[in-house]
Amino acid sequence: MVVHSKPPAMEQLSRPNHRAAFIPLIDLSKPDTKAQLVRACEDFGFFKVVHHGVPADLIRDLEAEALRFFSLPLSVKAQAGPPDPFGYGDKKIGHNGDVGWLEYLLLTTNDSSDYHKLSSIFGHAAEKFRCLVNKYIAAVRKMACEILEMVAEGLRIQQRDAFSKLLMDEQSDSVFRVNHYPPIPGFLESDGRNLIGFGEHTDPQIISVLRSNNISGLQISLKDGRWISVPPDHNSFFINVGDSLQVMTNGRFKSVKHRVVANGSKSRLSMIYFGGPPLSEKIAPLASLMQGEEDSLYKEFTWFEYKKSAYKSKLADNRLGLFEKI
Ligand code: GA4
């Protein structure tokens, strides 16, 4: 990304409501957090986890490699693009006109088909980077599966791995993303307005695991529509419920609307694992969660069909709307 140029025209955000809001905090080292996890998924679709077991040196090393990549000249990084769907992207998000004040890498999680794009510019460092990415994905996937298994227990689903098996499947269609939000040239803290880093959206997958450096920017939308800023914490992870988990719980869990505002003066770096099911998987409410005569709120669809439709949408669209029964 060229940081000397003027930022492109993007939607300006008004300041979020800064009234203190509480974000659920789950300590994964505590013995019984099932009920807390279920509550957080129902009330916020979002929570923070501590004592997560992902090695700090792995996180540090991957972050350093990612920053090294983003510090390369734009003309070099652009050779690892466009993200179709994997590779380097600059400002443009998706294919339908969304833009944000960021640059990013979108990578696969179960093969290395994007590897050639990185190795052409990153030389032998690409091997180190891909190796760290693979280790990191394995660690956060493990944590995501533990969370999903506790959630399944908390929901009294007999099959503990009802959700987690989809992430563990060899064909799991998961994605890994590294976002870099550089400072904004000419940014004035005092003018009270922010620029969109990544526009509001929900994640289509089952669960997302986000970790960032200590620079703020992430905001989530509460059930009453208020936006709140999530204080950054580089030692913790933030978990999002995705659209697919909303459907599998027949709307009991809500996928959380979130966005990132560019910080202005400092670089934000975030890494997100989006845990998704295999393409052929039918996404439908789990039978054991349906009470009495309860009917599915959603039409039947596979993850492939949902994903295809999602990629035709704009970020802020209500993607599940198309699949709701009227
Ligand atoms: C949002 C969640 C993930 O970042 C992502 C995004 C994807 C992309 O950046 O290519 C999408 C977006 C995300 C949802 C709607 C479509 C597709 C951009 C976009 C406008 C990788 C994903 O899976 O869906």
Automatic annotation (TrEMBL):
Pathway membership: Plant hormone biosynthesis; gibberellin biosynthesis; Hormone biosynthesis
Keywords: Dioxygenase, Iron, Metal-binding, Oxidoreductase
Catalytic activity: gibberellin A1 + 2-oxoglutarate + O2 = gibberellin A8 + succinate + CO2
Parts of the chain that traverse the membrane: none
EC number: 1.14.11.13
EC class: oxidoreductase
GO biological process entries: coumarin biosynthetic process; response to molecule of fungal origin
PROSITE patterns named in the record: FE2OG_OXY
Highest taxon of source: Eukaryota
GO-annotated molecular function: gibberellin 2-beta-dioxygenase activity; metal ion binding
Domain Fe2OG dioxygenase: 171-277
Job description of the protein: Catalyzes the 2-beta-hydroxylation of several biologically active gibberellins, leading to the homeostatic regulation of their endogenous level. Catabolism of gibberellins (GAs) plays a central role in plant development. Converts GA9/GA20 to GA51/GA29 and GA4/GA1 to GA34/GA8.
Family, per entry: Belongs to the iron/ascorbate-dependent oxidoreductase family. GA2OX subfamily.
Name of the molecule in the record: gibberellin 2beta-dioxygenase
Species annotation: Salvia divinorum
Gene, per the UniProt record: GA2OX1
